[in-house]
């Protein structure tokens, strides 16, 4: 199955919210990404996500960017680029 980068980001956030047992609100507070931006990413209403946003979200999960992106969701063969 291939996804867009935005869809992969949405799925990864949802996966980590469950895994880490935190809410969208807590992630927004921890990361410094506004709750409305986070909501837009999760509902896939954002056309293009910035790397700076991904860096903040990784920090909000107390992860490095490498750890955040270490998922089959982000393998090139699984993305529609």
Question: How would a textbook summarize the main sheet?
Answer: none
By DSSP (H or I, 4+ residues per run), the number of helices equals 5
Q: What is Rg?
A: 12 Å
CATH class category = Mainly Alpha
> How much helical structure, as a percent, in the residues?
55-70%
Number of domains: 1
Low-confidence stretches: none
Overall pLDDT level: 91
Terminal Cα span = 13 Å
CATH fold type: 434 Repressor (Amino-terminal Domain)
Q: Structural class from helices and strands?
A: mainly alpha
Structure report:
By secondary structure, the chain is an all-alpha fold. It has a single domain, classed as 434 Repressor (Amino-terminal Domain). Helices cover 58% and strands 0% of the residues. The chain is built from five helices and no strands. α2 crosses α4. The longest helix has 16 residues. The two termini are 13 Å apart. The model has no long low-confidence stretch (mean pLDDT 91).
Could you give a short description of this structure?
58% of the residues lie in helices and 0% in strands.
